[in-house]
Amino acid sequence: MAERPTYETALGASTPETITLLGRDLAQDVMGKVGFGELAFWLATQRRPSPGETRVFEAVLAALADHGFTPTAIVTRLTYLSAPDSVQGALAAGLLGGGSRFLGVTEDCGRFLHDVLDAVDGPLPTDDAGWDALALTTVQARREAKRFVPGLGHHVHKDGDPRTPRLMQIATEEDLFGPHLALFAAIGRVHPQALGTTLPLNGAGVCGAALADLGLPLELLRGFALLARTAGLIGQLAEELRHPVGNDIFLSVDLNNRSVDPDPYEAGGPHG
To answer: What's the helix, strand, coil split of the chain in %, to 5?
Structure first.
């Protein structure tokens, strides 16, 4: 008889007597001793974070947890209205809306900053003047290419996103203000020169910079944003149970629609 294949994992594994996680006894060494934020970092990197790394990481999770009646929150509430027997469906609906306009900016900004740093020929800047020069060149190149700078602008916080300076302060206090945050901060200082307007550095962008400075996999940055938003969406559902607004949102559209003639799609036309 052929031997059964084995599948190695450093994550969860069980025997009839024990459960191990990350090489530790789950019941004795993890439960009640490791916080969830610390555990999430540990699971993703397979190294236990320092207290400072945990503080920055959990600050990111807090910053991204909930932003009020965003599309992700509304779709979660409406899905629950339609299928109250499917909490998992309501949560999944909200998470699936995490894209380039909401939540995905965290990944987009982290990747963008990393690509700029990776392309630097020689040592990275060591002072604000050097970072400002790199940032100005970067923003000018994006403008010439007619591409947005990830992490710039916010539809509500026109004069500054309060999460941005706070997260930078926490990273500085923990000696974790690295090159991604340094470049992002420099972009905030110099972009008016290149764009002719002043935009805020938004919270999703600074979260991407901070996560990249923590050395977390760029491919997972959006996953951490979704991890944070899961807690927020659970809160949205909990509030919907106590003070439902989903039906009002539905009826505000359903009772106020207006029939119009079809607007056919034409390839290459104004909607093409």
So the answer is: 55, 5, 40
- pLDDT digit string, tens, across residues 83-121: 999 999 999 999 998 877 777 789 999 999 999 999 999
User: What Å distances lie between residue 134 and 125, 141, 189, 191, CA to CA?
Assistant: 8, 11, 12, 11
pLDDT one-digit tens code per residue, 146-165: 999 999 987 777 788 899 99
Structural domains in the chain plus CATH codes: 12-48 (no CATH), 104-217 (1.10.230.10)
Q: Choose among 54, 53, 37: nearest CA to 177.
A: 53
As a whole number of angstroms, the distance between CA 179 and CA 181 comes to 5
The pTM is what? 0.90
Give residue for tokens 């403008």: 143
Q: Which of 7, 26, 5 is nearest to 17 (CA)?
A: 26
